[in-house]
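Bumping with the actual sequence this time:
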Amino acid sequence: DQELDFSAPQGAQFEAGDSMSCNAAVVAAHDLTSPRADTLRKSGRARSIGEDFGEDRRCQPERSGSETHSPCGDMDQEPASVQDLMWHSSDVSVRPIVLNKRIERAGETGFDQASLAFEPMTLPEMLAASQDELEKFLALIYRSIGGATPLSEKMNTLAYFESLCCHSASANILINSSLMTLFLKLLRTAKSVPLKIRLTTVMGIMLRHATFIADDLAGSGIVEALTDALRDRDDRLRRTAMATLGELIFYVATQRSEHESAREQGLERPMSVWTISSSTVMQIVRLLRVGEKEDETVQHYAVKMLENVGAHGGEWTLRFTSQEVTLSLVNICTTTKNEYLRATASSTLFRLLRHSRNLVNVVVDKIGVRHCVRSLRDQQPKIQQSFLNILNLALLDPNSRTRNALAQEKGLVSDLINLLEHATTAIRMKSYVCLLSLSRLDARWLLAACRAKLPSIMDRATKTRDPRLTQCIKLLRDHMIQSVPEMFGHIKAEMDVLRRRKFVGGTAGSTGGAKATGSAMQLFPIVPLLISTDSFRGPVIDSPLICKVALFLQQSEGLNFPCQAEFKASLLTTLELVCQRPELLRFQRQICDTLLPVLLDLLQRSSNSDTRFLCLKLFTDITQLYLGVPEVYDKASRNPPPETVLIDNLVSKDLLPAYKKLLVDEHPIPLYAQKLLVSLLQGIGDPVIERACELDLPSTFFSFLSLEHSNNNVHNARVCKLLLASPCIGASAIADSMVVEKVLAILQYAIEHSVQPWVPG
């Protein structure tokens, strides 16, 4: 947008006392070549005459057009931190105050055309009129309202006049004419409350739609007149007065904001002549006090004004940002039953806190973390977004009370996870930012989020086209990936402490300090939860991860600490996920050099049968794959791959010597041992048979060829078949083991009882 210029055009001054001198207003309304008018056309604020003027509309701060002074910063720049991403353009959107249907349903404002004392013009006719015609027409309106006419005529003329104010071009003409001076005079002197209500309403509509207001109005006493009307006993008058004063203060705030923006850019911009007295500010502040039993609609207008002003920041936002104001907004949020007022108050609250960070912890302590979290489940997106903002502000520098209160909110993570798929992009963005801040605060929040399916949700969200949302996801994703090596560093330190205690004669789990050392280990389930999704699998799985997981698995055996079972289960689950085809072929050297030896070591040393089984299963799955991949295992090559030598050595020196123990272990370990040996005999061949003969393993497998033996199965039969086919097995060994007789007995039983796997085809 181009910069919006609210200064009066040269030669556009006029005498306030001259009721018919409206040259400045006409210039402001019809200067369609000015940057201001061009900006309005582009933004869509200059409304077409045929629009419904009474309809609420959502818009950006309409009177702030500085290109480099945006409350959200430059949306196109690459964000550098959480603070760059925690704000969205919708956080500074504003709605009109006057005739806002969410605050108050306006009554019918029709007029009786036949009762008018003059021939009325339509809005298009007025805008098309010459200056002389316009002055004569406005003189008729002036005399009808300001002359010695009946109250009914004044009210009817004002109702007609209201229909002319709902367009920016006409509002610029009318608000800068002496009719405004007349309205202020009548507001001060009239005794009729309905007349005062109509006057303040008309002034408010003009302020709502005008884009140029001459400086003369600043000295007319309009602020004081509206402030006096706020003290009236009639609630209806106080409502319209507060709405009109709110539009005026919002205009004044934007003028000051534009001046500050111009000064920052080194541009010349006249200082705004508008001032708002401290007594007016205090009067508005008093309206916010819940205990005063103020009319709730008046309060809503006051809060709406603060919400709009808060969109700009700067001097006027700070002027209204006090502990008294913020705590009054807290009371409104927690006590009102009006959902629109509650939404406006919550939005206003975060806008003020955004510019006064020192009040964030005060407000959060007062309103309570529980209320903030509960508001994330509200049905109104505006309330959800506002309290996400408040939580994100609090998480930038939380005090101990906030940290402790957050720890008690067990449903916070699930609420945030639900919001990640909200229909509103801004809410999704802020939920990602909140999860990131929580994860940085304590990694246990990240663990809880991963358990709540955060990685899979982020997997699905990678297709989003919104650049800011993509940046939020990326920032959280990068943190999650980086947390893995950091966690491994802490786990290594904890493991070192536990091992030192064991070696000096202590029991790791017997001291209170040992419980403290398990905190990083308790976070390890994050790893398998991450690598189970496609978007995290590649970045997280690398050589150091495989080596460290294998090391932790080996070192944890024989130690005793509180989370040992869960830690080892997570390690093994991680290895199961790692040991899938793509990763097995990416990191075959590290797996053969580090992981396979650890699996064989634990297979023999672990006292836990589940651990032994999983180690054997992993070893079986890995070797079965590798034996069929020439790039990994090639026994026929003169220069075989290093992995071939490693596998041969492991099988010969570590695995086969442990086979007799494996074959008498708990079920299903013997079954997997037999299955593994079939693969080794087929893939490696004679070297395995020769080593098996040295260890007297063939007779063991031959002994299983019995109908009563639990290890008599198809895998054992395949092992025996492969052994018998080798010249390494002599006839005497076959006869001594009675292999023929045993096989015949098994076949006879299988044929008689139709045991299909055993019946020859």
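The tokens above came from a reply further down the thread. The chain has a mean pLDDT of 83.
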